[in-house]
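Ligand: coenzyme A. Inputs:
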Amino acid sequence: MKNYGNIVGWGKFIPEKSLTNEDFEAYLDTSDEWIYARTGIRVRHVVNQEEQTSQMAADAAKEALRMAGLRGHDLDLIILATSSPDYLTPPISSQVQHALGAKKTAAFTLVTGCTGFIYALATAQQFISTGAYKRILVIGAELISRWLDYNDRSTCILFGDGAGAVILEATEKQSGVMSFVLGSDGSKAEHLILPGGGSKHPPSHEMLENNLHYLKMNGNEVFRFATRILGSSLREAIREAGLEPEDIDLFIPHQANQRIIDSAARQAGLPPEKVFINIENYGNTSAASIPIALCEALESGRAKIGDTLAFVAFGAGLTWAAAVVKIIEREEQPRKSIWKLPILRWFS
Ligand code: COA
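Predicted complex:
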């Protein structure tokens, strides 16, 4: 009997502070018209000095756990997709595991840029289908604002911070990740790169003087890559799931650029009314963009239990990823444990 990983809980965290296109107009040679027409973005949210990636990830995960009626120690594995951790080491996944009270739960961090959430979902599905694990928390969390040069108008206007999380639970009913397509082309790495801080350009005065601690992007090249790869990956994922484009109830793409999303949907034969877009309010939140959009789609009723969803993303690497995911009714709620009584939680 095959095991599937049905999504039984979801949550998100969006920082309160926001940056509007008008905020950029006030000091940069740019305009609301240019930004909105070229990207579809009007607002993005950014953390304050006290907030960290691990806190955003933990807050999104706590919401997902609450919704699923689970606690940290019910989890068998945590996979955290991010390119913007609190530290190079220790792994942020262990920080979040501790914050959730998920004592001794296995945890690892997965770094594939903006495709991280789909890569993590596909990875989680493997652990579930082999029967190794039953409940897996998958998080996409990013705090790109700390690595942006706010004088570089071609990158700083694009990105926002945030986190989203889902919980996959094993079931024998067909659900969860029905198919996935993953890919990578390292020959194009320099088009989206944070050169400083790693082993090639470790922290130094020289690194800072040369601004190597900021994200660098060749927007045109990334745009061309995305419009070439997304439509075909999406079509392949739908075909692999044994479905036709008409069978997809909602397409939830990585929110990087409205024009890129439109092109992917068109190439995959998905009509605009089946595309979920929230880029206007958040910008590109990298690995967090799909789980945040998924939460909003489910909260607003655009996506429902029983729906078949399609995800697609591209990002640093350069990488790409697509998946078809089905969410079904949960078989049974977890048993109400006496350990959930507040007085007894302290002892558990
Ligand atoms: N405001 C006004 N003008 C801007 C600008 C801004 N914020 N940013 C760039 N420009 C200028 C450029 O300097 C250029 O001026 P020039 O012609 O005088 O040299 C002009 O606008 C056109 O630049 P171009 O890069 O060709 O614009 P574009 O239509 O490709 O849009 C991006 C730029 C960055 C919006 C677009 O390339 C893009 O979204 N690429 C994908 C990036 C992405 O998704 N990255 C994340 C990957 S996960």
